[in-house]
Amino acid sequence: MHWPDLGRYTGAPSSTVVKLMLDSRPGRPVLCICLFLLFFSAGLCLAPATAHAADPFARPTDLEPDILFWTRIYTKVTTNGGLIHDDRFLGIVYEEIAFDPNESPRQRQRRVEDARDRYGRILRRLASVPQSEWTTDDKRVRGLWPDQATARDLSAAAEHVRFQLGQSDRFREGLIRSGEWEAHIAETLAAQGLPKEIAALPHVESSFNAAAYSKVGAAGLWQFMRSTGRRFMHIDAVVDERMDPYKATVGAAQLLQYNYTLLGSWPLAITAYNHGAEGMRRAKEMMGTDDIVTIVRRYQSRTFGFASRNFYVCFLAALEVDRNPEKYFGSLTRKAQVRSHMVTLTHYMPIAAIESAASVDRSTLRSLNPSLLASVWNGARFVPRGFDLRLPDSGKPFDANAVLAQVPEQQRYTVQRSEPTYRVRRGETLASIAGMHGTTVDALARANRLNASAALRRGLVLRLPEPSPVAVAAASAPPPKPELMEVYVVRRGDALSEIAKRVGVTEADLMRMNGLRDRDYLYEGQQLRVASASVTASAGTPAKPAIPAGVVTIAQLPVPPVIEDSVPAEMPSEAEVARQQAAQPVSAAQAAELGPSLVPGGESTASVDPSDYSVSANGTIIVQGAETLGHYADWLGIRAQQLRDLNNMKYRKPVVIGHRLKLDFSVVDAATFEQRRRAYQQELQEAFFEQFRITGTEVHVIKAGESLWTISQRRANVPIWLVRQYNPDVDFGDVRPGARVNIPLTAPSGSGAGQ
């Protein structure tokens, strides 16, 4: 379909539709889509609204050429060919290239480059020479563009010639594979109240390949990055639930529900799956609308490149093909649904013991349990306690308890087999490390010739004791009573010295136990670890119940360094994202190397965090959770007092989450500040999600006397930055009784997977 064909979808002259599209570019007048429809066809304005109400994924008329382009790519052109096209107006296709299967990648690349150069020259010639001098090829290319396209439009188009590799063979394979998981996906979406159409998204993400892994680290059927996956699944050195189609589907449903809650639109929620919640919130704010057509056509961002811009239309095209496979591929048979029995392990067990007890060969076990990593299969680690192990369904009655009973007692363990060593992170103690690895403080101290009360420095390598079987453990003497630890919740106006006096420890010890670098790094609602001294009633904040040593609480999580000059591995630079999105593979091998996504460069490396960490044009930022004036001063290389003076803030007055703050970039530029800020936030969040995962949300109505700080710390026991992420539009400095807020529900990340 070419742009002139759009007229029959809107009731307007084709030339007017295309002129509107051509003028919707930076620096050109833009005519509002709504005004256009009102002017040309008032009767049609009501129809799309009704359709959208009934169908969350109705096909926008103005994106129809893009949808048809991707439908053609997915169904008509194999990976032995592709289309030379305009990268903005996908309805303009200059040529279809068919490769010889024996051509090398270099030969293919040369053919593509020659074709792109040729059409670039034609477009520039159309813009610069009289019509009387046009060749037959010139006239053909000119005919692809509307009559209203100007010489300037054609000249600009020379810089937008692109090649898209075909995908029909990959898509057909994905349709066949989808039969294994479609029933489970449908059940999961229905259970969570999500649109059934979302079931087509794995076509775009992984071609329904549950073992898919991209070069940027996205994994599994739904292509989760590790940092995003940890929010909803269990991921460690033993288990990676991104590779489990069942668990990953639940995680994807939770993520998409989260996106929809934040953005209020399913087209934006789907696009955020690729571009990130922060990116789509910014696009929505900058464009002043949640209309996907306006954002796709007009929003400009270095990271909102070809893949992000096309992600939603790719999804719509995949949905169309998934609904009508015979129309495009003729008769095909999808794989049968994978059927299995599930056994929840009551102890840590070697995989060899399970293999013997269940009378199942190793390859079958491995295919049914892809989330178990190599350390389990090679015997270095046990299958975790609480892990939902899948066994083949033979069609006969199944008794999970009978299978477990076949595992010898001497092959059952109460703790995981650890790696031989462990490197200490900031803020960790012998108690917390012993708890994580299922041993005691005394055993860990003995193994390393340390005093049981010794303080640990960051980076210290500890030897870890080997676990004992259940039978041996039962016969041993009972372990010593655990040490106790309490937490103190910081109130407005609290000073570190005053807190130290209240809990009966020195200020230096309090800083050491909590990894604090500066005594001014306190904020209301912050949880501080304190020794087992009592927090008196006069402190004004009731103490939390004593926590056994080794049980990880939010307050015990490692504190990231305040300044980090390097970008974390899962946070690529804008330049890297732009490079990935500009990828144009010329063969199936190159496409596979880039990643499993059917949109080249489409692997989502964006964070699910919707918070805006950027510096605005006027040098201000929005204060986010877990940030203080001291953090900003450190990242800027200046004194905190300079920021107080700049913002007319009184001494000890805290910054308020959600409010704007003006910064001083006399020492450090805005880009460096953003880099340090993002690195801090990512490390903070990764530390949390190493220990906890999100299981759902609940709506809480604020009562008199409550604040989001008290709710997050005392009621929900989640950090304030996480509450902020689920309520990015709430003014944390002015939350009134009756306000409704979303509270994330969390559980230890080992739940259901075994830690």
Kindly provide the radius of gyration, computed on alpha-carbon positions and rounded to a whole number of angstroms: 29 Å
**Overall outline:** globular
Q: Tell me the span between the first and last alpha carbons.
A: 55 Å
- Mean pLDDT, as a whole number? 83
Helix/strand-derived class?
Answer: mainly alpha
The biggest sheet, with number of strands, parallel, antiparallel or mixed sense and barrel status, is: 3 strands, antiparallel
Number of helical regions: 34
Strand percentage, roughly?
A: 5-15%
Description:
It is a single chain. The protein is mainly α and 755 residues long. Among the domains are: 3-165, no CATH class; 169-231 and 252-329, Orthogonal Bundle (Lysozyme); 421-466, Membrane-bound Lytic Murein Transglycosylase D, Chain A (Roll); 484-549, Membrane-bound Lytic Murein Transglycosylase D, Chain A (Roll), CATH 3.10.350; 688-748, Roll (Membrane-bound Lytic Murein Transglycosylase D, Chain A), CATH 3.10.350.10. It is 41% helix and 9% strand. It has a 3-stranded antiparallel sheet with strand order 2-1-3, with helices on one face. α10 crosses α13, α13 packs across α14 and α14 crosses α17 (306-323).
Structure, briefly:
The protein is mainly α. Among the domains are: 3-165, no CATH class; 169-231 and 252-329, Lysozyme; 421-466, Membrane-bound Lytic Murein Transglycosylase D, Chain A; 484-549, LysM domain (Membrane-bound Lytic Murein Transglycosylase D, Chain A), CATH 3.10.350; 688-748, Membrane-bound Lytic Murein Transglycosylase D, Chain A (Roll), CATH 3.10.350.10. 41% of the residues lie in helices and 9% in strands.
